[in-house]
């Protein structure tokens, strides 16, 4: 939960509401409360600790696809970058090749201009190399916005702009790790 500004419990409830909007049952949502994993954009999380927790969850849930941030963390948030580093460490350093064939896709970070041109980035994304491209329908985009709005404690002014202009609510390009 990260317990940012002592809002851990609030954020857990917001996450559950958001997942409900997306059709994800509460039984499939895992919130990790660990004192060494604070929600703080200035804190890099311990790679080995996070890798262990992620692998434990993947194995427990028999997950066959992981989607995570790339090295840029989409927004540069240290926690996002740490998650990418831990998953990369799990796959590359530990030579992690689970028997069920789990694949890892990383969400492409784009420059500030592309990040906020909404649907106009679809054409650019179609022309550039990638391993997977997800283009949301108008209905899926609205569903994603409803899910984002569930995170009331995090809806600062700039996130409202994100809801209006972000390409990530319309198109997402990913690469295999």
Automatic annotation (TrEMBL):
Q: Name one GO molecular function term.
A: N-acetylglucosaminylphosphatidylinositol deacetylase activity
Family recorded in the similarity comment: Belongs to the PIGL family.
Cited InterPro entries: GlcNAc_PI_deacetylase-related (IPR003737), LmbE-like_dom_sf (IPR024078)
Q: Write the protein's name.
A: N-acetylglucosaminylphosphatidylinositol deacetylase
Q: Kindly name one Pfam family recorded for this protein.
A: PIG-L
Its EC number is: 3.5.1.89
The record's GO CC annotations read: endoplasmic reticulum; membrane
A single Gene Ontology biological process assigned to it is: GPI anchor biosynthetic process
SUPFAM superfamilies, alphabetically?
Answer: LmbE-like
